[in-house]
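Entry:
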Amino acid sequence: MESNPAFTLFVAVDGSTASEEAYNIAAKDLFRDNHDHLVVGHITDKRKESYLPYNFKQQYLHDNYEAKLIPFGHNARYAAREVDVMRGTKDCLWELAE
């Protein structure tokens, strides 16, 4: 009997409604308990921190998703890093997801 392979699900979050919905789909609909791994990632940009709405700020996202991932135990983690302006957000996200 062949078993289903474990997957690592990566969800990029930025504080938007769309990213919250993506997280909910991954965490509630796709994630298989005690089988898969879930990584929630965020790319920060300290140049924007002063004017971003609260729910888009790095500290809020960190605290919010760290709390949401507690029930997943070792099968989930939050990862964040500062954007490399020479490479851009998309490349930084790909690197974070690997």
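The beta strands are 8-12, 37-44, 76-82.
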